[in-house]
Amino acid sequence: MSAILERWNSAAEYFSLMVSRPTPLQYAALCYRKSGNCAEVLLITSRGSGRWILPKGWAMKNTSDFGTAASEAFEEAGVVGRIGPSALGTYQFRKWMRGGLPVRCTVQVYPLEVERLEDDYPEKDERQRQWFSVEEAAGKVDEPELQSLIRDFCP
User: Fold this and answer.
1) Distance from C-alpha of 64 to C-alpha of 28, rounded to nearest angstrom
2) Interval 5-50: pLDDT, tens
3) Which CATH number goes with the domain that contains 49?
4) In which residue ranges of the chain is pLDDT below 70?
5) Number of domains the chain is built from
6) I want to staple 40 with a disulfide (CB 3.0 to 4.6 A). Which of 23, 48, 57, 131 is the partner?
7) Whole-angstrom distance, CA of residue 78 vs CA of residue 68
8) Which pTM does this prediction carry?
9) How many Å apart are CA 75 and CA 23, to the nearest integer?
């Protein structure tokens, strides 16, 4: 009975997202540090599949879009730094909801210059984080629009 109820709740959540908003929107931080004339990009692993991604999340009440991106960068990667208030661009990805139902999400990406990485942060035991060159980072992520966004990034 609980398995049926769980599937019902998953389906209800899926249809609610599909009906209530045309495209669910998340906010991400493109975390970077300058290295000579180049930049390095910090990627983290997703909790489910272990893919390389940017820190991102849903809108937070009473928080700006770029503030949400900065908060997610701290929660998911321990990043402390300065976030830019203007989005670099957007990309789309398919988010798998509970119960295995896909929802197409749009992600607005904000630049965040990393001042330091904390060793203690909320999701430290759930994800890995690693620095990559811009070109390497673009090759590690799956979404073509995000690959382009990273390749075109020049702080």
Assistant:
1) 12
2) 465 555 555 555 445 545 799 999 999 999 888 899 999 999 988 9
3) 3.90.79.10
4) 1-22
5) 1
6) 131
7) 14
8) 0.82
9) 24
